[in-house]
Design brief:
- The chain is an alpha/beta fold and about 700 residues long.
- The protein contains 22 helices and 29 strands.
- Strands 22-21-20-19-18-17-29-23-28 form a nine-stranded mixed β-sheet. The protein has an eight-stranded parallel barrel with strand order 1-2-3-4-5-6-7-10, surrounded by eight helices. A five-stranded antiparallel β-sheet has the order 8-25-26-27-24.
- α1 runs parallel beside α9 and α6 runs parallel beside α8.
- The longest helix is centred in the middle third of the chain and has 19 residues.
């Protein structure tokens, strides 16, 4: 491995012991969460006081600290989040990992010195997304786990921004940031750090799950044998998952990947890998989406390590062996103060001690040199030492030790120097950009659904076709545009391959559409030439600042997150305007790995990929989009969300969105007609067999 092209190792630290385990086993950086605003709220995490200790401990040993600030925030939390950002900056953290676009905006405007990394929860999976993150002020992007190696290389080469990728650990079945399964099932939101992991429970395609059916439990990732390939692709940092795992696992995983980065032989790597898998294993040695389609499902975690192995891992971090190399130069000249210079890289300190006395008898210069180099429990080791000493110089050992301690303290103080916290910070003002027209917008998958929606009174149709390479439906719907209606194209939440990008860009340039809906931050550049640009619900518009920033980026309409309650939506609508989803089965997961294909082989599905059944017997439809690199499969909720009869209680909305996937044209027409009645002030009857979603059920 070419050591001139360095790749850094980022390890998880869910607790104090895990942090020590990571540092002592060779991590270049650790990522950890504080007591709030992080996506692993059930990990040990760190109090404010412990965070201060963690930063100092790591920085003393040359290890960076990245703090997870990666949840979506409610409006009522933004002021506290900004204050917390100031606190973290004052501690000297090396970066914060952010998901919320609104939070990123206020941090960038108030604390420009704070380094921002775009969390994998942002779902950035293409070059356009990385470029957008760069434009928003991020210095690094953590790519979605679904990006294959050749696309990683393409992004690294062209993005002009640091790229970090996951190399080991758990793989979410859904695209990160686009999973609402836990949220809809029990108000515990993955976007808020409280995911209950319903995907790890029993489920099967087509029928009730049997004992060993875990259709959504994906195997873990292991790229230990491919670190060189990641480095050659241009990745600056590889990340190990595991903030909720035990310290011994962190030690084993960090130790293994440190060996791989340092060029260990195959025998050593095989032994390191065995240690990792003996402590925790879910699915074995698999490379995820880098070289395939994600791994295998049906994997159950195994974590029953032998006590001897645990003790062996504990021994790797029992002693503080992580040291910074320093050069030292001491001067002992009779009649002048003793001096000691210590230097680490470009940081240098020099301290003076007591006056050097004339010796009553000859002194052992080597003894003085050895004493000054006894750096003991300090985080330093002497790589280079010189001593200028008069032949008759004398200094008591106690004074010599004090000189050394003062030099170490002075150097450490410089290494741990904290930046000055900004004095005046405030949330940016927002401007109302809505229009309150309340247009009825129907998202459909087929030509028949589109015609039914138009006929029933929809003002616009968002077409999300099964195949973006086909233009038949869009061509057939052109007559409706001449009748004062709008035809829009809705883009998929996950768009990776360059071939699929080209197909969609061709469709967008065809002149068949009046606008488009982006469902990923990278898609803005694809639709910017169109008259109407919409930020879809999967872009997680969670607060006023987020909506305002989407407007600043160039969007004309923003669909609010489906995880918001009535009061939360109301507060945003009053300040900025926005659109609300009033009907449809929530897209609970976005799958790049098709569970039907794995179990039964590819069925060449045309929008209907079958069903998924959980252990409670609930049936979830699977709706697929056929892309150039394989299908994107959406897991739809078992029942539709319907607030058509309630949304009149909100402030005026820019659009009322109804989403249709498996519905018949008659069902589409009936739902659109109810929405038209609601807009006219005729309150529809409450729905039967539907859920109200999060209208009155707040997520944690």
């Amino acid at each position: 491995m070419d050591q001139n092209k360095r790749i850094t190792l980022l390890s998880p630290a869910g607790s104090r012991e895990s942090l020590i385990a990571a540092v002592q086993n060779g991590a270049d950086a650790v990522y950890l969460g504080g007591s709030a605003f992080n996506a692993r709220r059930f990990a040990g995490n760190f109090t404010d006081e412990e965070l201060g200790w963690a930063v100092d401990y790591c920085h003393a040993r040359g290890v960076e600290v990245n703090v997870t600030f990666n949840t979506l925030l409610f409006d009522k939390e933004l002021e506290d989040a900004l204050s917390y950002g100031c606190f973290l900056y004052g501690l000297g953290v090396d970066s914060v990992i952010v998901q919320d676009i609104g939070l990123a905006r206020i941090l960038r405007e108030n604390i420009p010195g704070l380094i921002l990394h775009a969390s994998t929860q942002m779902g950035i999976c293409d070059l356009e997304g990385a470029l957008q993150a760069k434009d928003m002020g991020f210095s690094r992007v953590v790519l979605a786990r679904e990006v294959p190696m050749h696309e990683v290389k393409y992004i690294c080469k062209n993005a002009g921004i640091e790229v970090e990728t996951f190399a080991h650990g758990a793989m979410c079945m859904s695209v990160s940031g686009a999973c609402l399964f836990s949220s809809m099932a029990g108000e515990r939101s993955g976007n808020r750090g409280t995911c209950a992991q319903p995907c790890r429970k029993r489920a099967a395609t087509g029928g009730h799950p049997r004992e060993n059916d875990y259709a959504l439990s994906l195997s873990d990732l292991c790229m230990l044998s491919y670190v060189k390939e990641l480095r050659d692709a241009g990745v600056c940092c590889i990340k190990l998952e595991g903030r909720m795992k035990r310290p011994e696992y962190v030690a084993a995983a960090t130790r293994a990947y440190r060996a791989a980065i340092d060029g260990a032989d195959e025998k050593t790597l095989a032994a390191r890998k065995r240690d990792v898998f003996r402590i925790f294993n879910r699915g074995g040695d698999r490379t995820g989406y880098y070289y395939g389609d994600g791994g295998i499902t049906g994997c159950i975690a195994k974590a029953e390590p032998r006590e001897t192995l645990l003790h062996e891992m504990q021994d790797t971090y029992a002693a503080d062996s992580r040291k910074r190399s320093v050069s030292m130069h001491a001067t002992l000249a009779v009649g002048t103060p003793a001096s000691l210079m210590m230097k680490h890289k470009d940081i240098c300190v020099e301290t003076e001690g007591d006056i050097v006395l004339p010796a009553e008898k000859p002194q052992d210069k080597e003894r003085y040199a050895q004493q000054l180099q006894k750096l003991g429990i300090t985080p330093f080791s002497a790589a280079d030492f010189t001593l200028d000493m008069d032949e008759n110089a004398f200094l008591p050992m106690g004074k010599l030790n004090a000189l050394r301690r003062e030099a170490c303290d002075a150097l450490l103080a410089k290494l741990l120097q904290h930046p000055e916290v900004p004095h005046a910070v405030a949330l940016p003002e927002t401007v109302y950009r809505g229009n309150g027209k309340g247009v009825i917008s129907a998202l459909v998958c087929t030509e028949a659904q589109a015609k039914a929606a138009f006929a029933a009174g929809a003002d616009e149709v968002l077409l999300q076709p099964v195949n973006y390479g086909e233009v038949t439906a869009a061509t057939a719907l052109q007559p409706y545009r001449t009748a004062g209606k709008k035809l829009l194209l809705s883009l998929p939440a996950s768009l990776i391959s360059r071939e699929e990008h080209a197909r969609i860009e061709k469709l967008l340039a065809s002149g068949l559409f009046d606008g488009a809906e982006a469902n990923n931050i990278g898609q803005l550049s694809m639709i910017k030439h169109l008259p109407l640009k919409i930020a879809g619900s999967t872009m997680n518009a969670f607060n006023i600042q987020c909506v305002a920033h989407y407007y600043r980026l160039g969007f004309d309409r923003v669909v609010l997150s489906q995880e918001l309650t009535k009061p939360q939506m109301r507060d945003i609508l009053v300040k900025t305007g926005g659109a609300v989803t009033v009907y449809g089965r929530v897209q609970m997961m976005q799958l790049r790995h098709c569970p039907v294909k794995e179990r039964e082989g590819c069925k060449n599905c045309i929008g209907d990929a079958g069903t998924l059944v959980d252990e409670a017997g609930r049936i979830f439809p699977l709706a697929n989009i056929r892309q150039a690199e394989g299908c994107l499969v959406r897991v739809l909720n078992c029942t539709p969300t319907d607030i058509v009869d309630l949304y009149y209680a909100l402030p005026p909305v820019d659009a009322a969105l109804l989403a249709f996937y498996t519905e018949t044209p008659d069902e589409v027409a009936a739902a659109v007609s109810r929405a038209a009645d609601a807009r006219m002030g005729r309150k529809p009857e409450p729905p039967v067999g539907a859920t109200r979603g999060h209208w009155s059920r707040a997520v944690e």
